Amino acid sequence: xxxxxxxxxxxxxxFRALLGDGIFFSPALALFEPTTTxxxxxxxxxxxxxxxxxxxxxxxxxxxxxxxxxxxxVKHREYKKPWVIYGCLTRIPIGLLGMALLFSQHLSxxxxxxxxxxxxxxxxxxxxxxxxxxxxxxxKCIPEDQRGRFFGLMQVFGNIAAFGIGFFVKWxxxxxxxxxxxxxxxxxxxxxxxxxxxxGSMAFVKEPRGKVYQEAEPFGQFIRRLPEYLxxxxxxxxxxxxxxxxxxSSLALPFYVLYAKEKxxxxxxxxxxxxxxxxxxMLVGGMLWGYLGDTFGHSRILGYVGVVQALAPIAALxxxxxxxxxxxxxxxLIAYVLLGMGASGWSVGTNxxxxxxxxxxxxxxxxxxxxxxxxLFLAPFIGGYLVLIGGYxxxxxxxxxxxxxxxxxxxxxxxxxxxAEAR
Length: 423
Description:
Layout: H1 2-31, H2 37-45, H3 49-64, H4 67-74, H5 81-88, H6 92-102, H7 109-141, H8 147-174, H9 182-203, H10 219-224, H11 226-232, H12 234-247, H13 256-262, H14 271-296, H15 298-318, H16 325-343, H17 346-356, H18 362-372, H19 379-404
C-alpha cells in the first residue's frame, strides 16, 4: 500500500516537472521562432529567398539526422534523462548569439548571417537528440490514458505564455530605442533564459527504470534490422506516411511572414501579432487534439491535423483578395491561428506511435519515424525555389494539397496493447 502511494506521488511529481519543462519551452521557442523571428532576421541580412528557405531546412535536418545513431546509442540504457540534458546544452549558443547581436557594431552582415544560421542548426541538432530521448521518458512517466491530457495542458499553459511573448516581440521590434540587429539580440537573450528554465524543470524529473534491450548493438547490425521493425508493426508505416504528408506544409512555413510583407504590404512589426495568433492556434489545438486523442485514439484523428494545416495557406492566399490594412492583417492572423492548430498536432503523431509500439521499442520507432521524414528537410529549401519560379501562389497551393491528403485513408484503431511502466 505504501509502495503504491509512493509510486503515485512520483508520477504526480514527474507530471508536474515534465509539464514545467514544456511550459517554459513554448515561449522560449516563440522568441527563437523558425517561422517568424528567424526568417525576418535572415531576410534583413540577405536578399536571397533561398537562404530564407534554408532556415526551415536546417531546422528539419537538425531534428531528424541524429535520430538513428542516437537511438542505437541509448536503446539499451535504462535511464535516458542524461541524454536529454546533453542535447539541451546546444541552447547555450542562443544566449551567445544574442550577445553578439547586441554588440554587433563592427560585425558584417555576412558574418552575422553565418552566426545566425550556425546557431539555428546547432540548436535543432541538440533538440533532435534531446527530443528523441524526451519522448521515451514521457512514455515511461505518463500513463497512456493521461498523455492526451498531459500534452493538452502543456500546450495550453505554454502557449498562453508564448501568446504574451508575441506582444513583447512586437514591442521590441517596433521600439526605436534599439537599433537593428540589437533588437533581435534582446529577443534571443530572453529566449536563452527561458530555455534554461525549461532545462531546470526537466532536471527535477525522477525517471523510472525502463524496459530496454539487454546489450548494445553494432550500428551496422542495427541498420540491417530496421526492416524487421517495419514488418513487426505495419500501422507504424501508415502513421509515418500521414506525418510525412502533414510535414509537407513546411514548404511554405518560412514564407508566410515574407508574403505578408512583400505582397500584402504589412509592416515587419506585425510579426509579433503573428506569433500571438499562432500561439492562440496552438492553445486551441492543444486542447482539441488532447481531448480528441484521448476520446477516439490519436491515430484515428491524425489525418484531421493535415486538413487543418491545409487551410492555412488557403487563408493566406485569400489575403490578396482583401483590401485595406485591417482586412489583410485579419486574414493573415487567421492563417497563423490555423498554422498553430496544425503545429500543435505534433503530439498526435507522437502519441500515435506510442499507442502501437512496445515500451522497449519506443526510442527505435521514434528515431525511425524521424529518419523517414528526412526528405522533408529539403521542403523549405524547395519552397524558396518555388517562390522564384512560380511565386507565392504556386507555393501555397502545393502546401495546401499535400497535407490534406493525410486524411485520405484511416488507420485501424489501436488496441492499446502497451501502457506506461509508470501506470
